[in-house]
Structures are given as structure tokens and as C-alpha cells.
Amino acid sequence: MLIRSLKWFLLWWMILQIIFEVVKSQVKSLQPQERISHTATYINNKLYILGGESITTNPTTNEIALKEFFYLDCSKSFDTTNLSWEFLSNIQVPTRWSAASAKGGINNDTIFIYGGFSNDENDLNLVYTYNTKSDTWIIPKILNNFNITSKKNLEAIINYNDGKIYLFGGTSDELGISNDMVILDTINLVYNIGNLTNAPTPRFYYGATLLPNQNIIYFGGNDGKEALDLDVVYLYDTINNIWNTNKVTGLIPSKRYLFSTVLGSDGRGIIIFGGFNVVNTDSLYILDTINLEWYVPNITGQLPANRYNHKANVIGNFMVVSFGYGYQQEKESDILLLNMTNEKYEWSIVFKPLNDTLPLPSTSISSPPTMTQTSSPTISSEPQSNISSTTIKPIIIAGVLVGILFIILGYLFL
Ligand SMILES: *[C@@H]1O[C@H](CO)[C@@H](O)[C@H](O)[C@H]1NC(C)=O
Ligand SMILES: *[C@@H]1O[C@H](CO)[C@@H](O)[C@H](O)[C@H]1NC(C)=O
Ligand SMILES: *[C@@H]1O[C@H](CO)[C@@H](O)[C@H](O)[C@H]1NC(C)=O
Ligand SMILES: *[C@@H]1O[C@H](CO)[C@@H](O)[C@H](O)[C@H]1NC(C)=O
Ligand SMILES: *[C@@H]1O[C@H](CO)[C@@H](O)[C@H](O)[C@H]1NC(C)=O
Ligand SMILES: *[C@@H]1O[C@H](CO)[C@@H](O)[C@H](O)[C@H]1NC(C)=O
Ligand SMILES: *[C@@H]1O[C@H](CO)[C@@H](O)[C@H](O)[C@H]1NC(C)=O
Ligand SMILES: *[C@@H]1O[C@H](CO)[C@@H](O)[C@H](O)[C@H]1NC(C)=O
């Protein structure tokens, strides 16, 4: 009697375990597709990812905008081997790739999306905004919109002191590869044109970031023929609207484009990562903005594959790299983390927010390593997620598990 009920208990326990694992892998399977040319905007502890282009094996046919909008919650610790993305409605979302994005607006809580490519002919507005508080997309009416072209492959850099976004260079049907500066005031919703005198040569896919002295620094990129040098930097003074050029020294990176550029958490070093035709042992440099010298920092941790056409954001003490070309989703996470705490650089798989005092999440200790492999692919029918070829894997594994269960049951009940 006792043994019999024990067997029934075991049976139900195992069935529940299997249901639990299947549900867990389905919940976890809400993984976005790999992508390039997306936008990544950090607002109020959330890293919002919009669109981008899907990656296919034939680079000439992959111009398909991904109509997906989702975020990563950075208010708490996470592990890049087990990311929990939150998908947002994609109903009013613009379909875009190679657009520029920045956080702006009166309350600093709005994503501004400018330019870029779209496959959708009904979706060609120049600027869209997403209010993160009210979860709404709108097409704002912006004054002075005469002669503002829809540029692509450029950076949007905002100066928070006046809420203006600086949109330098890029490519457009009207201007080709340009060196003009469009200025979009996100508070008053009006365009201005920046100074052209002493501007850098026309370029796209360049690096740009705002410095604490309200100058935007620009370097590298592509002029339509070749990669551009990183031994010279261009500074746009956003207060006086004046361009300056500076020679830089040190360990100068080779000419490159499609890399990411951020100002490190020390407010002094500009970190560039990746780029087209760059090897991973040569993928990261820092420009010291005080003495204008490039150097290669000592970095611990697992060196990731080189990426290009990715994005990078600074979140707390971390540089958070998202998506791009150059890695394999089975081997590396869509997110890379560079821990920059106290200028001791380390590639990390664990993110910790600044205010977090809890211990680091223990990742692989709680579950056997095989589980982490079964759980990544997609088997959900959620509209946002896509069913990939790897869908088959969890089904096979579930099948094997059920098989094992029946062998055990057969043994127990014989
Ligand atoms: C907007 O956010 C930035 C940091 O992302 C901050 O430096 C700036 O002070 C904020 N501006 C306002 C008006 O809150
Ligand atoms: C728009 O551009 C055209 C041609 O470049 C120029 O002739 C015209 O004056 C411009 N209009 C304004 C309002 O700047
Ligand atoms: C543009 O920059 C030049 C110097 O590079 C300066 O002389 C000129 O006044 C600036 N023009 C405007 C409109 O700010
Ligand atoms: C890297 O480490 C070596 C050996 O510890 C040291 O000599 C070198 O100065 C370090 N480089 C940087 C950029 O800190
Ligand atoms: C980041 O680096 C600092 C200093 O090296 C270290 O104390 C901290 O634990 C690291 N954070 C993570 C999440 O690894
Ligand atoms: C960190 O602060 C954010 C708000 O700024 C909050 O949402 C989050 O819960 C905090 N995290 C911890 C661990 O206190
Ligand atoms: C993955 O993350 C979720 C929470 O987002 C957590 O419940 C789960 O235990 C994690 N799985 C592993 C294998 O760490
Ligand atoms: C999944 O991707 C294919 C192309 O790879 C696309 O045709 C299809 O619309 C996508 N499905 C969803 C739900 O995004």
C-alpha cells in the first residue's frame, strides 16, 4: 500500500517536473532574433531595442526591417546567458534599420527615432517618438522642416543641457554621403542647421560621443570608398556651434568603421569596440580625452568575438553591447558586458546595477549545465518571437526526457 502510493507520488512528481521544465523553456524562449543596424536607447533602467535588419547568410538580400520592439530590465542584476527580454507591442512601431536614436524630450523619458531605412511605404515619416511613461508612439510635428533630408547610417548625440540632438553626416538619397549637421531640438520640436565651416569630410558609420565639456567628438567612419583614420578627431562645440580638429597620438587604432563609441563611466576615456574587418584581439581601444592619446587597456575575462553594426550603451559601470554581426548566438550572448568599475576592465557575463547591494546571482549552480542549452531556442507561438530552425531541439530533448520517464515508470511498475 505504502509502496504503491509512493510510486504514484513519484509518477506525479516526474510529470509535474517535465511540465515545469517545458513551461520554463517556453517562457525563456522569448528570445529576439539576431540583428544589425538596430537602435538601442537607455531610459529609466531599461535598454530599449528597436528594429534593425535581420541577418541572413546572403548579405545582399537581408534588407528586411525587423518590426520588433523590446527592452532589457537593468534595474536588477542579470546574467547574459539567461536574458529575460520584455517585448512591447509592435503595433504602432516604425519599421526601421540604420536609424539614429536618442533619449530626449521635456521629461527626459522619450525615445527619438530619426531617419533610417524602411521596407514599408506607408511608414516613411522622418521622426518618431516613443514616450516610455505612457507607452505611446507618435509622429511629432517639427517646425523648420524644410530641406531636412532623411539620413541613414549616422549617430544621434544629445546634449542634455539643452535637449538638442545633433545629427551629423550619414547618407541620404538627396545628399549622398554628407557632412551636414542637422540639429533637432527635442524640447521645442524645431530643426536647426549646424555650422558647416571646418566640418569633417563627408562620412557615415563613424564614431561619436558627447564629452562633459559639451563638445561632441567624431572620428573614423567610411567616406564611401574606404575606412577613415582615427589619428584625427573632430570636435563640435555645441555651445558656440564651431568645429575644431585635433591630432591624437598614442596607440592609434587602424582605420575603421561600424564600431561602437561610448564615454566610459569615468567620464574621461572614450571606449571604441568592434568594427568591420577588425580581429577580436584588436577590437577595443580607449581614447584618453585629457591628453588625447589612444591606448589599449588590460582587460580580464573571456575575450568575445569581434562585432560590427552593433550598439553599445553605458549603464552604470558597464558598457552594454547589443547584437551586431560577428558572433554566433549558440556560442555567445546577444549582450556583451564590459565591467568598467574603477578602470579595471573585465568582460563579464553578470550585470549589476549601481544601487544593487544584493549578492551576484548564482547562475549555473542552481541547475545542471544541460538545462541552459535546452532552454535557449524558440518553441513559443508568441507573435513577437520567431520560430527558428533550432525549434526542433527542445522538442527532441523533451521527447528524450519523456522516453526516459517511461523507461523508469516501466521499471517501477513491473
Ligand atoms: C537626462 O538624463 C541625463 C543622463 O542620461 C542626465 O545627465 C540629465 O541631467 C537628464 N536631464 C534632465 C532634465 O533630467
Ligand atoms: C532648400 O534647398 C534648396 C536647394 O538646395 C535651396 O535653393 C532652398 O533655398 C532651400 N530652402 C530653404 C528654406 O532653406
Ligand atoms: C561657423 O564656424 C566659424 C569658425 O569655424 C565661425 O567663424 C562662424 O562664426 C560660425 N558660424 C556660425 C553661424 O556660428
Ligand atoms: C597592462 O599590464 C601590464 C603588466 O601588468 C602593465 O605593464 C601595463 O602598463 C598595463 N597597461 C595598461 C594600459 O594599463
Ligand atoms: C566589476 O568589477 C569590480 C571591480 O573589479 C568588481 O568588484 C565587481 O564585482 C565586478 N562586478 C561584476 C558584476 O562582476
Ligand atoms: C535600483 O533603483 C531603481 C530605481 O532607480 C529601482 O527600480 C530598483 O529596484 C533599484 N534596485 C535595487 C536592487 O534596489
Ligand atoms: C533565468 O532567469 C530567470 C529569471 O529571469 C530565473 O528564474 C531562472 O532561474 C534563470 N535560469 C537559470 C538557469 O539561471
Ligand atoms: C519569421 O521570420 C520569417 C523570415 O525569416 C518571416 O517571414 C516571418 O514573418 C517571421 N515571423 C514572425 C512572427 O516574426
Automatic annotation (TrEMBL):
UniProt KW Ribonucleoprotein keyword: no
Stretches for region Disordered: 364-385
Transmembrane segments: 395-413
Keywords: Kelch repeat, Membrane, Repeat, Signal, Transmembrane, Transmembrane helix
SUPFAM superfamilies recorded: Kelch motif (SSF117281)
UniProt biased composition (Low complexity): 364-381
InterPro entries xrefs: Kelch-typ_b-propeller
Keyword S-adenosyl-L-methionine: no
Signal peptide: 1-25
Origin: domain of life: Eukaryota
Protein name: Galactose oxidase
Species whose genome carries this gene: Rhizophagus irregularis
Organism phylogeny: Eukaryota, Fungi, Fungi incertae sedis, Mucoromycota, Glomeromycotina
